[in-house]
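[step 3/7] inverse_fold.run input=structure_tokens len=592
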């Protein structure tokens, strides 16, 4: 009897669970009281139960000898016949249920999804993994699963997290909050990728890097940002889990917004720069390809080996031109003309002529290859190129060379004597323009480009510095002038005192002007100390702009290298695919 009772209870429990799963038994609240029928009261199983009530118990059975035990068992076996048939029916039901589950698993995904029973077909509703309509779980089964399981397993990218349903209900408008209140198959699949009611597991096809922070927000009510996490990726995760960014804790909201804006700005600048490089439109004319070739050869030194050689040659000409301009002023290398006046060495003039010829040829070739001529003419470096070569042609076509002029004493000069002096002044001005050749190095020097960028983007700070210097110069200079007006110390006017203030505040101190009275020396001390403060205020901002340009330049170089590597990888992949596709065709031709 105990064995029979235990077996009957186990089978009843198993049958009850299967009945609940396949909607064979209603809920407890829906269960109705039914009267026993005549078939139930007078069935063989009921008669066997009544006959078993009159059998001896287990203690009495143990006291019998072996022969009596055998006889008692022979009496009980016919009574257990109806129960054996019931056990056989239960076994058949279990076997049929198992076969149905196996067929359902094979139908859903043969091998890859294991025991996931219900899967979504968000990308393709006609996918082979989608569930037929007659196998979609009923809302009653989903509700029953929620009642039986107080906890749930959240599988995010293969990492499982076990939480209580009540925690997820704290944010009812979030994805997990909506999942805790979902009652139908369609609602669940609109919130997660797959789910399994048997294992009580819901799968989300997301990277698990930030889900610990998200889950901690459900548990503690505080949303924080970790330093090692990308703010853009974390923002996308918050959007997926339907959590508002304004729910960040006060210690992290400013950091999150600041980092995100900074990263977005840097990405936009880098992308805009790369797009500007890619937007070079040379047209569709028959000379477009030659124009692009010339432009890449002279403007983009990283495009080819020939472009690198051209860049090195250009830098050599710039260096030779600067050195020739410097040593041409050395008296030992100069020669005397017919009037005994020192003039430049003809050999150095020849070197300068060769350099100017190269600069001119380079400029016009670059202008011919430029995709946008107006933008080329407005560029600052191109203006420097024009200024550096303009003095040579002005002196060549508009001014006469003294040593090449023949002097005829019998001929009366027809030119005004003052005209030569005015032309010499013009020539002197254009000679000063030769100093622009030094700036040509900026085209090939990232350091000079960084300095130009710093000055360009620090005009406000430089203006503040000049303004503070002017204010200090007027106040301290005027004060010192009136103090030293009776002393012979060189303070003859306020502009002279202003000059003294500037060289004092910049810690130069030529010593040509200095106060001599005690009060004047006190003012000079105040001037020197205030100069340190005035100069130190805008310097950090200027240094920060220089560092910013340096970092942006490094990011740009890395982005260009990455872009070049991706292009090479795509090209190689295309060639490999082409080769792989051609091999079967070759074998086919050989076979034929």
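[step 3/7] decode complete -> sequence:
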């Amino acid at each position: 009897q105990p064995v029979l009772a235990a077996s009957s209870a186990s089978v009843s429990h198993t049958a009850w669970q299967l009945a609940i799963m396949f909607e064979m038994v209603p809920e407890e609240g829906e269960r109705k009281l039914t009267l026993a029928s005549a078939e139930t009261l007078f069935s063989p199983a009921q008669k066997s139960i009544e006959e078993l009530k009159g059998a001896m118990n287990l203690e009495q059975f143990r006291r019998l000898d072996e022969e009596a035990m055998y006889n008692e068992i022979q009496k009980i076996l016919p009574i257990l016949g109806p129960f054996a048939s019931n056990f056989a029916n239960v076994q058949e039901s279990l076997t049929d249920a198992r076969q149905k589950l196996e067929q359902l698993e094979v139908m859903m995904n043969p091998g890859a999804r294991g025991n996931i029973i219900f899967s979504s077909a968000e990308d393709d509703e006609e996918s082979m993994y989608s569930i037929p309509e007659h196998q979609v779980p009923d809302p009653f089964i989903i509700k029953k699963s929620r009642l039986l399981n107080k906890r749930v397993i959240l599988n995010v990218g293969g990492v499982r997290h076990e939480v209580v349903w009540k925690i997820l209900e704290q944010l009812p408008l979030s994805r997990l909050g909506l999942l805790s209140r979902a009652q139908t198959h369609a609602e669940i699949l609109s919130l997660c990728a797959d789910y399994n009611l048997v294992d009580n597991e819901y799968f989300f096809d997301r990277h698990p890097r930030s889900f610990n922070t998200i889950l901690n927000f459900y548990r503690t009510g505080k949303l924080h940002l970790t330093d090692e996490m990308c703010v853009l990726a974390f923002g996308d995760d918050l959007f997926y889990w339907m959590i508002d960014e304004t729910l960040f804790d006060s210690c992290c909201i400013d950091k999150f917004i600041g980092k995100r804006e900074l990263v977005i700005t840097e990405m936009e600048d880098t992308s805009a720069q790369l797009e500007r490089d890619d937007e070079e439109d040379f047209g569709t004319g028959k000379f477009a390809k030659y124009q692009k070739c010339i432009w890449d050869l002279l403007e983009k030194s990283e495009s080819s080996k020939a472009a690198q050689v051209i860049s090195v040659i250009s830098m050599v000409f710039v260096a030779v031109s600067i050195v020739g301009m410097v040593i041409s002023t050395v008296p030992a290398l100069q020669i005397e003309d017919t009037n005994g006046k020192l003039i430049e060495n003809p050999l150095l003039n020849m070197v300068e002529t060769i350099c100017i010829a190269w600069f001119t040829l380079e400029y016009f070739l670059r202008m011919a290859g430029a995709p946008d001529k107006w933008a080329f003419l407005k560029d600052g470096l191109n203006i420097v190129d024009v200024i550096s070569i303009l003095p040579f042609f002005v002196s060549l076509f508009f001014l006469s060379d003294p040593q090449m002029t023949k002097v005829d004493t019998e001929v009366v000069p027809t030119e005004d004597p003052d005209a030569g002096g005015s032309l010499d002044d013009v020539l002197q001005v254009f000679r000063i323009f030769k100093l622009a050749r030094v700036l040509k190095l900026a085209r090939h020097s990232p350091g000079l480009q960084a300095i130009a960028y710093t000055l360009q983007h620090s005009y406000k700070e430089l203006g503040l510095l000049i303004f503070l210097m002017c204010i200090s110069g007027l106040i301290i200079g005027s004060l010192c002038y009136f103090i030293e007006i009776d002393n012979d110390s060189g303070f003859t006017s306020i502009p002279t005192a202003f000059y003294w203030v500037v060289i004092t505040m910049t810690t130069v101190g030529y010593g040509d002007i200095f106060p001599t009275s005690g009060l004047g020396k006190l003012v000079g001390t105040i001037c020197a100390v205030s100069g340190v403060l005035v100069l130190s205020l805008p310097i950090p901002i200027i240094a920060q702009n220089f560092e910013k340009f340096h970092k942006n330049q490094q990011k740009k170089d890395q982005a260009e290298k990455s872009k070049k590597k991706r292009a090479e990888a795509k090209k190689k992949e295309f060639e490999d695919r082409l080769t792989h596709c051609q091999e079967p065709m070759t074998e086919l031709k050989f076979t034929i």
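[step 4/7] annotate
The first strand starts at residue 118 and ends at 119.
Residues 108 and 128 are 7 Å apart (CA to CA).
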